[in-house]
Design a protein that fits this description.
15 strands; alpha/beta; 383 residues; homodimer
């Protein structure tokens, strides 16, 4: 298991440096060492998120960050537009609904991107919508949405734009301040190369105003309380924070900082292109078009006669490469290759070589080395 | 910092074995290795909790487990009785209130225990109360409540008894099935010797019935969904679990199992008695009476002229011993010594010796070695 090549879209492999940092001795979460830790991590996240907005951290999965948005920013009965182009868009809609919002979904074919013009039309038709929710990077389909374009298409300034950026933070360009994204929800276990268990939320001044006008229905997710504790002279959290995960995140943030954010984004984009080239050389198709294909995950359409479960089982057991299946309505129709976080060209080559061999094992006509060759061409051209 | 003696009531020091286990390579949270991990951990927790009830785990602080109870088991407007004898009782009341419950608090002097007879009277006076919430071990005051006695005092079988056992799980005897405690909320970072970030909740069949009749207002805390995923042939969770914390918890559970639960409880009780004896030998008083004093934390009353902040700062900076201050209305009136989790007699001796020296530094009349001697007497008698 130690040599398994984990190529799922998250949780992603944690760099040894970060994993070991997480094993450091426990500290008092009300003391000065913790204050320094929390300050460094939240400031590091501001740089990664290219935002001046305060970044709040919660001991939670990313789904918790989504729920926090619903609890703080939407009063029961308020109308919210959720763009749904995959499983995670559907999840955000469900979270909003369960929290009491009056949810309108704007549905797109899974594997395509949210169309800014469609968002504009929906808002023009219904002036009571005060919030638009978009999944920045839809992990279930391997599609990245054009957040900047969506904001430009929104006809009113007072409409809050909320982005689920759980699978894009630290891997795909995201400029909330420049683009006018009011709320960013992220998590530790994908581009940030940290074990799962930390959700993050960053709010624009406009979003804070809305929070101030909305009664928060949760003690756990209370944004105002989290900010109040964070802004004390010795930064704290309202309740016990996930100290060891913050240690690990601090180390991963230092690594991302050292690599340089532009380089990180470029690395992900190049590796994704190499994966897509390799997959196509195998004669397989990707679910997403090239114009909106994600840099963190590639959804590959299963050809007739190739059973996803069998393929993934073989890849895991015989070749030590772990990929992900399809979710929701895409279960059994696709498989997914994650290439996010602590990933490099070696992982891509190993994955494609394993795919070649496994596909041949299952009777597909596949030429040895062809996918790897296609990937090498992309990698070579990009230096 | 590496030699700091962390004697706060949580988060507690993590055994090196468990901390390093948390650094193991990441795995697919939908795969068989994770299923085996989750199964071992939940079964191990059942043994620690001495319960046949399913134990659900959430990526969250303990406070999240409290909020989960409110979201799943209490419909808006339902009347709940919360016994408040300290900061954490007050927190549970606040969580219930914010979630929409009609909360009645039953207040006790901070430093005393919840009286079963008072609970009985409150329920007799108000037959509309369907739930009683009690903090099993009130960390802010160092008092352990008599849960079995409280259950016996509850006049109706259909009243659910909810225990916040966050600071008692794995350290103080707790027999929910035998005592009739319907809901147990726990967390990883105290008696379970694991980093913070995992909340656990165990529900009796009666509590599950109530959950079935109550609309859950949360996707994140949904008990039924968590159980459904857990009971699949390959156990899973509805969203990404805190994998590294589960690794660490598995290791800590193995250590507790090897020591033997009765021995674990006894160790905590003996060390607590040694701490109290030492504190008294210093001429200081404890907030809690001997009949209800906690095995995990001792609240020490600050004598006139001794400033808590000064004492704790000196202990930390000069002697490397980290204690906790008072919370809420007890801030500045007490300090607290935690003795929970991976704690042994050496920690107690070091803490008491540091206290002796720091108190002398601050001008108190303290005889060198006196507190340590009193502790040794307790430790010696207990073998």
């Amino acid at each position: 298991m130690d040599r398994h090549c984990l190529m799922i879209p998250g949780p992603t492999p944690v760099p040894v440096r970060a994993a070991l940092a997480g094993a450091a001795p426990m500290i008092n979460h009300r003391g000065p060492e913790f204050g320094a830790l929390l300050r460094e991590v939240t400031e590091g996240l501001q740089r990664i998120l290219m935002t001046r907005n305060t970044v709040l951290l919660f001991p939670a999965a990313g789904t918790g960050g989504m729920e926090a948005v619903a609890a703080n920013l939407v009063a029961p009965g308020e109308r919210v537009l959720v763009a749904v182009a995959g499983e995670f868009g559907a999840r955000f809609a469900e979270i909003m609904r369960v929290a009491g919002a009056d949810v309108r979904t704007l549905d797109f074919e899974w594997g395509t991107a949210v169309e800014p013009a469609a968002v504009a039309r929906a808002l023009e038709e219904d002036p009571s919508i005060g919030m638009v929710v978009v999944t920045h990077n839809e992990t279930s389909t391997g599609v990245t949405m054009d957040l900047a374009g969506i904001r430009r298409a929104i006809p009113r300034d007072d409409v809050l734009l909320v982005a689920d950026a759980i699978s894009s933070v630290g891997a795909i360009e995201l400029r909330p301040d420049e683009w006018g994204v009011d709320v960013v929800v992220g998590a530790s276990q994908k581009g940030l190369m940290t074990p799962p268990g930390l959700a993050l939320v960053a709010l624009s001044p406009r979003a804070w105003e809305k929070a101030g006008r909305t009664r928060c229905r949760s003690v756990y997710w209370d944004f105002a309380a989290a900010r109040r504790f964070l802004e004390q002279p010795t930064p704290q959290t309202p309740y016990t924070p996930a100290v060891s995960l913050l240690y690990a995140l601090r180390e991963s943030l230092r690594m991302l900082q050292a690599e340089g954010l532009e380089n990180v984004f470029r690395r992900h984009a190049v590796l994704a292109r190499a994966v897509r080239a390799g997959v196509r050389a195998l004669g397989l198709g990707t679910l997403a078009g090239e114009d909106c294909a994600s840099s963190t995950v590639t959804a590959v359409v299963l050809p007739d006669g190739l059973e996803g479960k069998k393929l993934l089982g073989l890849l895991r057991q015989k070749y030590g490469v772990v990929l992900a299946g399809g979710q929701g309505r895409l279960a059994g129709r696709i498989f997914r290759v994650g290439h996010v976080g602590r990933v490099n060209w070696q992982d891509v080559v190993v994955t494609l070589a394993a795919l070649e061999m496994a596909c041949r094992d299952l009777g597909l006509e596949v030429e040895h080395g062809r996918a790897v060759a296609a990937a090498e061409e992309v990698l070579g051209a990009e230096g």
